[in-house]
Amino acid sequence: MTSHRKDKPVVDRSSDSRQDSFNRELMGESRLRELREKHVSGRLSSSESLELILQGNSGHVDALKGAPMTAHQRYLKIIAGQADYLIVRCSDARVHKTDSEQDTMVGIHIYIAGNVIPGKKTASFDEIAQVASLVRSDGACLDEAHCDCGAVKERVKWVEGGMKPTGSESLDCLLHEVIGPTPSDNAVAQLSKLRNLPGLGERATGALYYDWQKGGITIVDANQSPVVELLVGLFNKRHADADSDGHLAERLAKQKPHAIIIGSNLLPFSLNTITHASQNEVFQTTGSGNGLDEFDEGSILYAVEHLGVRHIPFIAPGISENSEMVAAVFDQWEMDLRQMTVNGKTIVANMLDSGELTISRLRYDLSSGRLVPMGAAKPVDDSA
């Protein structure tokens, strides 16, 4: 008996899948533009600020697919003491981009208001000394200042007013460490402190000055070093890319971040690269596994009180297997934030409890580069 069964036609679904992926990409780019336009013209809510950070991070994840090194390889290079450079920079949202996914040089980025090198016998000084030891012996350690620095301006006003207590020990500590009437003077003074780091060895050192108004990064003072010269060349290229339309100085006339990111000092990329943030989008400071100290807190208070920032994302590297360790770091950071006081009032804790200020916890997944949202802190049982 002859069979009349007909085989079902084979349908190629791959083109549909590619089209769906393309459509999602277009929707993501459209939403990214929409959020950035809203940030420029008004103010983002905390949820929109988080969405902008996560949308930008998707671009970082895509860029890593063709990168010469994975995020995990870069992280391993840092913790093995083979980072190519350390740069201490101001927390200001307007600083230029330093790195990219295509870089073969790996840097450690420390953000602190006024690009200060804290005095000895402080936790921040010990932190910078510790991460400086992770730079290879022929690498470079840099301090970078910038024009229109708010910390320097506040220092000048504070000195003219008689250096009276501000009501915040954290801000007082920060203002004491900013030195000189101009950002370039401050950079030279901070470089002197940087050169006093224990165990600096033969590593090159330098003070840089970024002037977006006049167009670029210059070396204020540095050892003769091909690494420093190479980095300044890269930084100037990234500034030029950001100023391709010639209007960057106009966009940076007033600092206007939508978030202050507290990032780990062991992240394999700068925060601007991880979030693909444009200049003037995110204020930044650096936290360690031991928590936040008075200099971190001074930077945060400046962003909250003077810039009106209402969203604080935490970002630290990890993998799914060590999520509890990352969560413990975030718990410590939040505890430190809640203990910050101005004139005896726990200003940050009050704003968090009222919902006026929001924290987002984001684990930087070393296997993919993706920012993975984590749950909120567990409530403390005061009855124990």
Alpha carbon gyration radius: 23 Å
CA distance, first residue to last residue = 83 Å
Q: Find the CATH superfamily.
A: Carbonic anhydrase
Percent of residues in β-strands: 15-25%
Structural class: alpha/beta
CATH structural class: Alpha Beta
CATH architecture annotation name: 3-Layer(aba) Sandwich
Which strands sit side by side, in order, in the main sheet? 2-1-3-4-5
Average pLDDT, rounded to a whole number, is 88
In short:
This protein has 384 residues and is α/β, with parallel strands linked by helices.
Describe this protein's structure.
The chain is of the alpha/beta class. It has one domain (45-373): 3-Layer(aba) Sandwich (Beta-carbonic Anhydrase, Chain A). The protein has helices spanning 14-41, 46-64, 71-79, 123-132, 150-160, 169-177, 183-194, 226-242, 248-251, 271-275, 294-306, 323-338, 347-354; strands spanning 83-89, 107-111, 135-146, 204-211, 216-222, 259-264, 282-287, 311-318, 358-365, 371-373. α1 (14-41) packs across α2 and α6 packs across α11 (294-306). The longest helix has 28 residues, at 14-41. The protein is globular and about 45 Å long. The N and C termini lie far apart (83 Å).
